[in-house]
Amino acid sequence: MTQTNLKDIALTVNGKEYTASVEPRMLLSDVLRDELRLTGTHVGCEHGICGACTIMMDGRPVRSCLVFGVQADKKEIRTVEGLAEPDGSLHPLQEAFWEKHGLQCGFCTPGVLMSACHFLEQNPNPSREEIREGISGNLCRCTGYQNIVDAVEMAAEVLKQNKKSEEESGDLEIVSSGRKVEV
Hints:
The protein contains five helices and seven strands, in the order ββαβββααααββ. It is an alpha+beta fold. A hairpin with a 2-residue loop joins strand 6 and strand 7.
């Protein structure tokens, strides 16, 4: 292959701007892992079935193994590395997965976390059945899902309490794509 086949792309991942020269056929999962060295996104089935590679692209969950890197040009990407705060403190979902033993081998966990994060943004007060439906696109071979559902339920409660505390204190923050804006 010659260098003339490469396409230049620019994307923002977890708030940081990146550029890369990639083959048009290179998958976004490979761009993230191999070109940008963000290895939190796991590649499982490479057919879009398992959900291990789920990331957020422009605020929507996508299977990064089904998207070409060139399709992510000028897009806002959020990976599992972008869930934690800059100071290293864990997102409430990550804390809940740890507390409720929502992972075993951990292979599916990044994709489940990203799917659950989007789900809770859309439905901050879910029932257990809604949680099951919300994560139904992610396959896990180890946990049996009970602890994952428990963790998402716990995270929903923590997120509600955090929001209530922020509203009561008057220091309301809007969090969008990992950036906080004080109101």
